[in-house]
Amino acid sequence: MNRTLILRSRNDRWSVKLNARVLLVTVVLAALLAISSVLALTSGSHPTSVTDVLGTLVAPNQSELALIILEIRLPRILMAILVGAALGSAGLILQGLVRNPLASPDVIGITSGASAAAVLFLWLGGITGTSLLLAPVAMGGAFVVALGITALAWQRGISPARLVLVGVGLAAGLTAVTTLLLVLSPDATAMNAYIWLTGSLYASQWHDVIALAPWLMVCWPLALIKLRHLDAQSMGEEMALGLGSALQGHRLLFLVLAVALAGSAVAYAGAIGFIGLIAPHMARRLVNSGHTGLLPIAALIGALILLYADWVGRVAFIPRDLPAGIFVAGIGAPFFVYLLYRLRRELG
Amino acid sequence: MHRYASFLLIVTCLFQSPAAIAAIATTPVTIVAHALGEATIAGHPDRVVSLYQGATDTAVALGIKPIGVVESWTEKPMYQYLREALQGVTYLGLETQPDLERIAWLSPDLIVGARNRHRTIYPLLKRIAPTVIPGDVYDFKALLTLMAKATGRTARGEELLTHWQERVEDFRTRIRQKLDEQWPQEVAILSFRADHARIYYGGFARSVLDELGFTAPASHRQESWGIKLTSQESIPAMDAEAVFIFMEDDPAVQRTFNTWSSHPLWKNLKAVRHNDVYQVDPVTWNMGAGIIAANRMLDELYQHYDLHQPEHRGCIQC
């Protein structure tokens, strides 16, 4: 049933094994994403027809319609896709790395690190601070925390179990710092910080897309090439070593990849939670494959979740524009409870 | 910059039809410098979009009915005192995330935003229409001057400012006579929320009180906006000769106020002992943030201190 296609180069230098089901699911999800994006492009305060949208995309002009579609809707939709895909991929890599289905960027402290840094920045800058530096600062926070977690969890190499425990602990501490800063902030700053903490794609612009895209373009191919080592690791440390996989080196690489993906996504969209947790689980339900095959599917599911969440926030309560994070949490929180429930039954 | 603008104008004219040239030639161009750059505005904009409460208030004072405004914080969708002037206006959602598409569809001539809220969307706003952003959200006079210039209503703006100045002078004279030795009076601005109390060190109300000649307790003379208090042990920090309190009309807020004001420390405050505690309107004192709100605040002060207020004219609503 699980047919596979194998592509080989002539001299056998490389080969790619493609699972037919993975391919099928990827194509279906990609098509769904493309259709959803076009539909999302047509809806807004003033719905526009599909022909208008396609016409503007093909031949942009100077009208208000072009401004709305090309400068307001399109970058925002692209950001939803990029951020969702980055978070879904980061979650998959982390869950594979620590071999725990409940791991995700927000559980092990990466998101908390970015949040604390962002809120600190907003607090220090107050009203006069420039917002262009917010994203790099948040990303810096994510990396510093990841470094801290690794250093604290280091015991002759990275031990995944310690990684999770230290991460959860640090996340709790950082949440306390964030709350303290919020209490100290004046209303306007606190409100900006709250919106950031919920995660919002409002007012995403082309420069955001251009800043975020390179992170994915570097991390993604690297992950696709290297993820087979995660499959080896999932069979146990001895097995991975026996198969000739550099255990610690790869663990470090995967951690860096997950932090870069999650950190950059969160830096530009705010602390959107749950996608990193849910998307990999949904991917595993759809296909039974190694991590390489799961990666595009988890990424596509992440992109779809955020695209729809942002779409609802943007259109359902016009003229109010609500942060996408609210709706992601709306689906994410029940799913998390369901996962806990299922895990307990499986283990008990 | 003016030279550059006129050069641009000539270049544009070269590519325009004669009718269009006539139109451009008769439309004066104003260049307005603001907190985030410069805006080039043609003519006297009538289609104004206001993205924060102070700008909405100021637009109404200048005699402009904005085509789009953001929702108010309380008394939604718009504060009672502005509602009549804003009938049929288009609402653009919340001040924090206004509906950009709707702003674009309205095709405004001028957008007024706030620095702390709309900095990130400023590049988009500027592409929709000339956008001005005042430097300090609490300086209602600077806002008035900026908007008067941007909308080509400088005469009206000056009239409003002179009128305000006269009222301030009158109030100062009368209160000095009334309080005699107790003037200048030391006053504190307090607010209660559902889960905490606040002392305001800065902000709109404080700036108006400063201008009127009131003083702040030494410990309240700080650069920051104020402080949030969660423990009733900090009640002595609220002490002053007189206290102004604004709070929203909400049962939870009222409960907090009742708890705090029945505390022994509260009863020990100077202002409480001398019965100089005034409850004031949160909308005029803390949210309106424009010239009309300032005038309404002054009205309340005349009333609280039981001063005779001369008939005043000039501002429709003031």
UniProtKB/TrEMBL annotation, chain A:
Transmembrane segments: 77-98, 107-127, 133-154, 163-185, 252-279, 291-309, 321-341
Keyword hit for Isomerase: no
Any single biological process term in GO: siderophore-iron import into cell
Entry GO CC: plasma membrane
Molecular function in Gene Ontology: transmembrane transporter activity
Source organism superkingdom: Bacteria
Coiled coil start-end: none
InterPro entries linked: ABC_BtuC-like, ABC_transptr_permease_BtuC
Main location: membrane
Cell location: Cell membrane
Keywords from the named record: Cell membrane, Membrane, Transmembrane, Transmembrane helix, Transport
Recorded topology in the membrane: Multi-pass membrane protein
Family, per entry: Belongs to the binding-protein-dependent transport system permease family. FecCD subfamily.
Record-linked PANTHER family: FERRIC ENTEROBACTIN TRANSPORT SYSTEM PERMEASE PROTEIN, FERRIC ENTEROBACTIN TRANSPORT SYSTEM PERMEASE PROTEIN FEPG
Protein name, as recorded: Transport system permease protein
Originating organism: Marinobacter algicola DG893
Taxonomic lineage: Bacteria, Pseudomonadati, Pseudomonadota, Gammaproteobacteria, Pseudomonadales
UniProtKB/TrEMBL annotation, chain B:
Keyword terms: Ion transport, Iron, Iron transport, Signal, Transport
Gene Ontology CC terms, in alphabetical order: outer membrane-bounded periplasmic space
Protein's UniProt keywords contain Signal: yes
Domain Fe/B12 periplasmic-binding: 47-309
Main location as per UniProt: other
SUPFAM superfamilies: Helical backbone' metal receptor
One BP annotation, GO: iron coordination entity transport
The organism's place on the tree of life at top rank: Bacteria
InterPro entries registered for this protein in UniProt: ABC_transptr_periplasmic_BD, Bact_iron-sidero_bind
Localization per Swiss-Prot or TrEMBL: Cell envelope
Signal peptide residue numbers: 1-22
Family, as annotated: Belongs to the bacterial solute-binding protein 8 family.
Protein name (record): Periplasmic binding protein
Organism: Marinobacter algicola DG893
